[in-house]
Amino acid sequence: MAYLGIGRVFPYLKAVNEILEARGVQLPLEPQSATDAEAADDEVNPRSRRVAGTQAQVDIFGDGMKQFYQSGSEDSRHINYWLADNCFGDYYTRGGLTLAERELVTFCYIYAQGGCEPQLEGHTAANFRMGNDKGVLIQVISHCIPFIGYPRTLNRL
Predict the structure, then answer these.
(1) Above 90 in pLDDT, residue 40?
(2) What does the longest C-alpha to C-alpha distance in the chain come to?
(3) 0.85 exceeded by pTM
(4) What ranges do the domains of the chain cover?
(5) Cα–Cα distance, 104 to 124 (Å, whole number)
(6) What is the pLDDT of residue 59?
(7) CA distance 42 to 49
(8) What is the pLDDT of residue 130?
(9) What is the mean pLDDT of residues 16-27?
(10) CB 34 within 8 A of CB 93
(11) CA-based nearest residue to 136, from 112, 155, 108
(12) Quick check: 91 and 35 in contact, CB under 8 A?
């Protein structure tokens, strides 16, 4: 949801739930959250969404992300905070996928949208940092062609 928005994700979630129920999976699934929305936002509280999210950003993108949540102009700084707190703190810290797997999925989401090239560049580099090399990304791009098309594929290559 953090990369595509609820409008695009909701139909997918509905379909996934229908498939899971048809296969006898008990819903709702066990919560995967590793953070606490009510935890204090201080550097000593690893259950804080923002603290855990910032750590995930650092693990993925490097030390330059330590203070990113505080960066930007005063009127839009809250968006960088939300990115650390919500996107990385809520989603990237959940169980079920490794950071390398999450970056690969993120790469696909951003690549599929088009028009997000600066973010795609950052997440391409993050994939490399996480061990998803050029060959892996080319395989992913190749598998996505039927869903995304050649123009975006050629742009990404």
Answers:
(1) no
(2) 50
(3) yes
(4) 98-157
(5) 9
(6) 97
(7) 10
(8) 97
(9) 97
(10) yes
(11) 108
(12) no
Higher-pLDDT residue of 145, 41: 145
Q: How far is CA 32 from the centre of its chain?
A: 15
Helices (H) and strands (E) in the chain, counts: 7, 0
Per residue in 98-154, pLDDT tens? 999 999 999 999 999 989 999 999 999 999 999 999 999 999 999 999 999 999 999
85 contacts 49 by C-beta, under 8 angstroms:
yes
DSSP state, 29? P
DSSP codes, 119-154: HHHHHHHHHHHTT--HHHHHHHHHHHHHHH-HHHHH
Q: Can you tell me the distance from the alpha carbon of 81 to that of 54, in angstroms, rounded to the nearest whole number?
A: 9
**Distance in angstroms (rounded) separating the CA atoms of residues 49 and 146:** 36
DSSP-assigned beta bridge partners for residue 36 = 48
Collapsing DSSP to helix, strand or coil, 30 comes out as: coil
Structure tokens at 33: 């959250």
58 by Cβ neighbours in 10 Å (0-12 / 13-18 / 19+) ranks as middle
Contact 111, 127 (CB under 8 A): no
48: β partners: 36
6, two tokens: 């609820």
Give the pLDDT of residue 52: 95
Q: Tokens 């990113």, residue? A: 68
